[in-house]
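This part of the workshop introduces the protein records we will be handling. An example says more than a description, so a record of this kind follows:
>
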Amino acid sequence: MAKEPKNEVRIDKWLWAVRLFKTRSISIEAIKKGRISVKGVTVKPSRMIRIGDVIEVRRPPITYSFEVLNLTENRMGAKLVPEFMKDVTSPSQLEILELSKMSGFVDRARGTGRPTKKDRRELEQFSEDYSFFDDWDFNDED
């Protein structure tokens, strides 16, 4: 008895299977928080999706869009993912992502988190640049 191909799959299983989320519970949590939508409508984890649906995934600062090319409930290797989904994220959203990457840690709210190694090196480099003043004697009155 051959297994019939499915024409619908739960969205939480599909998001996990195509490796958009590391675990199914994380995909369910994202859906419940309203970060996943189909055709502009937020969905529930049990929502069935079909081939051709466009799924929007909000991961600040942008919203990614993926078209469903094939259905699966089984997690796959990364090399197989292009057979099951196509990234159709708009260029304007990708531009926002590039701008946020260029801004670096500037967006971090003051006082949140520890400085990174890069932050520390930049601070040390900055303070070393002004160390040449140490050799000067400003109190010398000639």
The radius of gyration is 24 Å. The longest helix spans residues 91-103. The beta strands are 9-10, 36-38, 41-42, 48-49, 54-59, 62-68, 85-87. The chain is about 30% helix and 20% strand.
